[in-house]
Amino acid sequence: MADKLTSERRSWNMSRIRGKDTKPEMLVRRLLHAKGYRYRLHGSVRGGRLPGNPDLVFAGRRKVIFVNGCFWHFHDCRVGRHAPQNNADFWAAKRTRTRDRDAEQRLLLEAAGWQVLTVWECELKDVSSLETNLDAFLRKPTPG
User: Fold this and answer.
1) So where are the chain's domains?
2) Dihedral of the CA atoms 122, 126, 129, 132 (nearest 10)?
3) What is the spatial distance between Cα 94 and Cα 73, in angstroms, rounded to a whole number?
4) Closest by CA position to 124, among listed 42, 25, 40, 43
């Protein structure tokens, strides 16, 4: 019985984890908006959606930004390298699939002429460096 309750509780906890409008994403959005950049949200462009539904889309610049959580997207930082002890095989497979899907979506976007930047959750600790990186990415001329 205790396993069932634990499993149900874990399922409930997981259902509360958002994929959109996360705290890291909102921080990046506020920084960019304060600097005067305007964007569309979650992969929407005229004529449909972009592969992977990027968090921020700068259609006129042909640039997109993904804001990824280090754990969920298997980043190589300390948090991303953390391996859960419970149900380890499940989590390893799930996180590996996410990382592979991210790479595939990035290739599709780049093949379609989009420039892609991934902002990792751990990069948000140094806001000044983050602002510099975002500015450099968005100011860089679009090839073609």
Assistant:
1) 23-139
2) 90
3) 9
4) 25
Instruction: From 45, 54, 40, 49, select the one nearest 102 (Cα to Cα).
Output: 54
Model's pTM, two decimal places? 0.83
Q: Quick check: 75 and 82 in contact, CB under 8 A? A: no
Please give the CATH number for the structural domain made up of 23-139: 3.40.960.10
- Tens of pLDDT, residue by residue over 36-95, are 999 998 877 776 789 888 999 999 999 999 999 887 787 888 877 788 788 888 888 888
